[in-house]
Amino acid sequence: MKKRNHRMLFIIDALIILCVVVLDQLVKFWTTTHVGMNAVHQFIPGILSLTNLRNDGAAWSILQGKTTFFYLITVVALSVLIYFLYQTRGHWLYQVSLSFMIAGAFGNFVDRIRLKYVVDMFQIDFINFPIFNVADFSLTIGVILLFVAIIKEDKLEG
What we know:
Layout: H1 2-34, E1 40-44, E2 48-55, H2 67-87, H3 92-115, E3 118-124, H4 134-157
Antiparallel strand pairs: 1-2, 2-3
Helix pairs in contact: 1-3, 2-3, 3-4
């Protein structure tokens, strides 16, 4: 029975990763074909706008142009995340959180390899926040779920 549960969790992990990466790439494709470069279109007035931004750095464009560094750090991060995904077999919340993080890292990695930059499109209008994409959102969801899993485990142990 345990082996069956592990197999089911692996399928769920693979589906999360595949769906997020495909959605990320589709939204990026739509954005680059329908939104002019650096144009801003209000989506939810005063809250969220759509734009088309090329980012060859990280959040707030830090480390701009350090493409080789991002290749290296992404390969290392993906390797570590996949290792932890394997190590947390049977712990569904850890696995789901790691799957979202893997999907996000891989989605942006696809852009960096293919385009040498990452396409960002979601702009929060009411605060100074980096423009982000589906992959970034997936990474954020993964980190939040990981914190929830850690807190949940601490409460069970304590």
